[in-house]
Amino acid sequence: MYEIIANPQEYQIDHLINGIDNANIELTREERDKWAKQIVQFSERLSGFAQKTDMFSSLLASEEKISAPPASLKTLKIKLFMINDALNSAQGIADMLESDMIKTCQDA
Question: In whole angstroms, how far apart are CA 34 and each of 8, 20, 39, 104?
């Protein structure tokens, strides 16, 4: 059995759940299936993103001539920094979630 111990304050969402009981509940099969599907969707989006980054990287590493106005290059750099920041945040959240899912002892 696993227990999720995600503290809403650590995720900065505690105001969204004020008044919700803190007692553990067992997730139903339907809830688990729904969440599992959502995680698969996240994974598929990340796979699609990885394919795009491979294409962009291949293009930039190729011998193809590439030209752009300075404003476009600045925009590209800013957008890449935004993507990098978002990925760093997502990785940090995923690491927190992973540590917040703990395996507990099975009932005897």
Answer: 21, 21, 9, 23
Residues near 101 by beta carbon (within 8 Å), at least 6 away in sequence: 2, 3, 4, 5
Q: Give the whole-angstrom CA distance, residue 76 versus residue 95.
A: 28
Q: Model confidence over 38-79: pLDDT tens digits?
A: 999 999 999 999 999 999 999 999 999 999 998 999 999 999
CB 61 within 8 A of CB 54: no
Cα–Cα distance for residue pair 46/62, rounded to 1 Å: 24
Q: Which residues pair with 103 in a beta bridge?
A: 2
Helix (H, G, I), strand (E, B) or coil at 74: helix
Which residues lie below 8 Å from residue 93, measured CB to CB, with a gap of 6+? Answer: 11
